[in-house]
Design goal:
Largest sheet: 5 strands, antiparallel
Strand content: over 45%
Number of strands: 10
Strand order of the largest sheet: 4-3-8-9-10
Number of domains: 2
Order of helices and strands: HEEEEEHEEEEE
Length: 211
């Protein structure tokens, strides 16, 4: 074998070693990234659920049940209002938090603020005037009139609530999705005339037919 041939073989060998080292580096880097992502995922846990405050005020709570702080949180809310013998109604809103959500910390999304106007515009709920009371103003001592307004259910309906939460942890984005059904119905039992005339029940939507 000539000197030039030996040099060519040496160059080829060096190239092959370099290519092999590059692929080993890429594989190790990808493996490290997967292991890091898995480790972060194991330390992340979000608890997402709707709740009812004060009888008829809808809220959504997002609780960080993991061990790592969440850097950013974005919530997509898709609501489908279902009425008997009428077309469905749709509503979409986004809610965001750009500050840290520490472990064991819970944030509250005031869904009622957006939902109430939507329901009243579509003649599903409304405010009606309730009883009027007279009482003493604690500051002035004068008798003052206080009128109670109550939430009134015009017609029963239900809402399919689809919640998708994107949480950013150490530059990784995790997605949590939950579905719930909110059922709005009139109260069966007798109730005082200064209380809302309906109640809201919450059911977890477990699944659906796909074929």
């Amino acid at each position: 074998m000539s000197t030039s041939e030996a040099q060519i073989l040496t160059v080829i060998s060096l190239i092959l070693v370099g290519v092999q080292a590059y692929f080993v580096y890429r594989i190790d880097r990808a493996k490290l990234k997967i292991e890091r992502y898995t480790a972060i995922g194991e330390k992340c846990e979000l608890q997402v659920k709707p709740m009812i405050q004060g009888g008829t005020n809808e809220i959504i709570t997002v609780a960080n049940k993991g061990t790592l702080p969440i850097e950013e949180t974005k919530v997509d809310l898709d609501l489908t209002v279902k009425r008997r013998n009428e077309a469905d109604l749709y509503l979409h809103h986004q809610w965001g938090l750009k500050t840290l959500l520490s472990p064991d910390e819970t944030i509250t999304i005031p869904l009622h603020e957006k939902l109430w106007d939507f329901l009243t515009k579509n003649n599903l709920t409304k405010l009606i005037k309730g009883p009027t009371y007279w009482g003493e103003d604690p500051e002035t001592g004068e008798d003052v009139e206080d009128t109670i307004y109550i939430a009134y259910l015009v017609k029963p309906f239900s809402i399919m609530l689809d919640i998708q939460v994107e949480s950013k942890v150490q530059d990784q984005t995790n997605t949590t999705r939950k579905k719930y059904q909110l059922i709005y119905d009139r109260r069966d039992e007798l109730f005082p005339d200064d209380e809302d005339n309906y109640e809201i029940k919450i059911n977890r939507h477990e699944g659906e037919w796909i074929s």
